[in-house]
Each structure stands twice: as structure tokens, then as C-alpha cells.
Amino acid sequence: MNLTMKGFKILTLATVASFMLFGGSCNKDFLDKNPKNSVSSEVFWTSQKDVETALAGVYYRLQENFLGYERVYLDALTDNAFADPGNNTQPNLSVMTTGGISPGLGGALPNIYSTPYKLISSANYFLDNVDRAPLAEQLVNVYKAEARFLRALAYFDLVQSFGGVVVYRNFLTKLEDIRIQKSSEEEVYSFIHEDLDFAIAHLPTGLYKGHAVKASAQGIKARVYMTQQNWGAARSLLEEIIADNTFSLADSYEDLFTTDGQAKASVNREIMFATQYLAPNSVHRLRPGAGGLDIELGWFALMQPYKNLVDDYEMKDGKRPEESTYYDAENPYRNRDPRLYATVKLPSDEWVNPVTGETGEIYNTYTGFHTKKWVDLRRLPFVNETARQSDQDYIHLRYADILLMYAEAVNELDGPVEVVYNQLNLVRGRSGVDLPDVDRAKYSSQDNLRDYIRHERRIEFALEGHRYNDLKRWKIAHTLLPTLKNPSGVSYVFREHNYRLPFSITELDNNPQLEQNDGYK
């Protein structure tokens, strides 16, 4: 095991024990109360090992639904990809794109709400009890900083999806304490910043090795500021990360998304925070059926890239196809941005194991394309047993995002100045991609450079689950998405009120104090 990246995974067995501590849910307690058969708190919290076991349980919550590998499916709510209607991993994603968002919708929608609260509940339990351990205050503050970072991550997911939500600062054991009114969106953001400020003050510096570090919290806080369009505050934080010179771009774009690649120091230097997995005990999915990214994307084709995305990749000379001498109408996807070949399986591609030469089957596609990013072809041919090997870490934050957020923030503040082009060129010129510098004459105004930055974000982070929140924070989802049709010819629907998702009927029944978002009955 490579401890530079996978070090935290040595706590896997302790994680399972801690997950039992924080327990499952029952019908009335949607915040995961401590079950009766859990480890007694009277004999716990007596050592540093107890604290680390409990903290591992909080991290374990990241493996569920959209906090883990399934976050990639958020791209199926955008113009990047189509969700196969047979996707039982996150049902009804395709329904959400065509006007079916409602409080009664099951599947993905309630998961977007409930899963962050499970993480919040576990973090609150940890924070309410960690002071009982006989440890030095400085060490306890580091552990608290990790838990508060994770809590902030969960609330950030919630506020982006639902706006104002209920804020719980402590672990609750009484149902009446859970039934409270939601906080305003501004109050939720204030609480997120409070947690992240504590994390930044107490987390250690250095590379990410499984535990959140200072730059993890700085980067997420910058993303929060970007969402709030506080460009100046975002720029200051991003400048600190860049000046620190701890993180850098990986020397292989493709290797960022495979287990072996993520174990390389030359690759994981780009990763700033991730949901971690480790075969065979902590893999993507074994129940209720075999799953995980290799099987779900590389065999079942549950998320299929749109031609709209594929056509957005430039030629290798950095020009659009209609402007480039490299473009060949007979071979339209030859000589493209190399990131295309690491992201999308093109119609002419064959699934081949690069080590053994074995081939593998993949289900038909409705769009003409398949997802290649996150799929490890060295595990071909994919079978149910492949689920016991699929442990690619899902990357929440990487250094390329720092550079592109910085370019965006500076352009919003100062327009097309030198430093904006420099950040774009670093990402486009990364090893193995090697695209030419941005054409400054073509992208010389703030407006057209803004569009180009957004294009670059789409390409760099395609099928990583970021575009949905990007389209919403740019306030263009309601104009862009309705121009799209799914493979059945049904138009996408995204109305103004869809910037905020509805609370489910179940949540409204559980908490009569919870007020439904505007636009939903």
C-alpha cells in the first residue's frame, strides 16, 4: 500500500467498528441516532485510538451516495451526460432532467438530502464527545478541525441543492429537538464558513494523505466563496494555496482516476481531498448487487456522454474543429485534446485490457458514446467479481480546480489580465495534454474570456460531478439546459425554481416545522 495517498486506509477495520457506533437509521429518526447495540460511550473515548476510530467513522460517511463515487452521476443532470433509465444505483436521475422534480420523487432526490445529514450527525456526535478523551488540547483541535471540515462539506452540499436548510450544531437524541425551522441560506453559509475557518486554523499543512489538511479546507472555502460570487475573498485564499507551492498538477491526467495512478506520488500531488476506498474491505459497492465505477460505467453504461460534450473538445492545436487544419470530417475525433481520450470511449474504441490484451463487453449506448474516465481497463473483462476490486478514490478537490477558480475570480475582478491566461495555460499545458496557450487575441474581453474559462472547466472536470453546481452558480442552467434533448427526443426542463430542489414529502412529515421551497406543492 502506498502510504503517501492511502495512509488513512489502514483504519479500515476500525472504520467498520466506528460505523456501528454511529449506526443506521430507523423510521422516526432520520438523523441516525445511536443504536441500542452500539459501543457504550461510557467505555469509549478513553484513548487516542478511540478518537481515531470514531473519526474514521465520520470519514466513512463519505462513501455513501453523492458524497462518494456516485457523485459522478450529477453530470447526468447536465448537458454532459445521459443517465440510463435503468440506473438503479441512483434512480430517477433522467426523470429529474425532464420536468419530473417533485416532493414525491424517490431515488436520487431524497439521497441528495439525507446523506449529508448522516455525515453531519456523525460529525456532531464526534464533536460532542471528543473532549472526554484524555488528550492534549492541540491534538484534540486537529481532530475537531477534521470533523468540522467534513460537516462544512456536507452543509455546502445541502445549501447548493436546497438553499436554506435546518442547521444542527449538536447530536440530537430527541425527536422534538430535530423538528425545528430551517435557517436562511445566508445563515447556512455563515455556519459553513465558521466550520471552515476553524479547520483552516487547526489543520496541519502539507500534502493530502487521507486526512483533510489546511489546503483542503482553504480550497473548499474558496469554492464556497465562488458560489457566493465573493470573488475577492476567493482570490485571496486561492493565492495562498498557490503561493504555498505544496500541490501541483499530476504528470498524467488519465492516472488521476485509477487506483494505481492515484498511488503515484507524481499523480496524487494534485489531489487535495477525496472519498477514499480500499479493496477488498472498503470498495465502491457490493450490496444490494455488485457495482462500482468499473461495472456501472465500464460494463452497464449507466452514464453516457453526450455528443454535445464530445464536440466541445478542441483540436490538438487548441482551435475549434471548424478553424483547424487538423480536422477531418471522416475522422472527427482524431487529433483532439488528449483529455477527450481519457474521458470518453469513442465509437471506434474497443475495450481492451492494456496488460493482458483481453477484451470486454459493454452495454449499448443511447448517445453513441461511453464513459471512460474512472474506468480501470486493467480489470477487464468486467464481471460481478470486479466489484471487489473497484476502489478508485473519488476526488472532491484537486489542484487544477484551484488554478481555474483563480483564473475565474481574477477575470471577474480585473478582466483579461496576464495572470488569468497563465492559470489557464498551466492546466491546458499539463503533462500529457500539452495544448497551446490560450489565443489572447480571440479571448481578449472579460465576457468572452469568462465563456472560455467555463469551457475549460467543462473539459477539465467532465464526468466528475462538478458541472451541475457550476451551471447553477453561473445562473445559466435555466437557459442552457432547456436547449438539450435526451436520446428519446424529450426536451430538458429546468425552471427558475429548480435552482432549489424540493424537500421530500417524507422530510416534511418528519419535521412539520420545515417549510417547502418556492415552486413546489
UniProtKB/TrEMBL annotation:
Gene3D superfamilies: 1.25.40.390. Coiled coil: none annotated. Residues 300-520 form the RagB/SusD domain. Residues 29-226 form the SusD-like N-terminal domain. Keywords: Cell outer membrane, Membrane, Signal. PROSITE patterns: PROKAR_LIPOPROTEIN (PS51257). It is found in: Cell outer membrane. One of its GO terms (cellular component) is cell outer membrane. Belongs to the SusD family. This is RagB/SusD family nutrient uptake outer membrane protein.
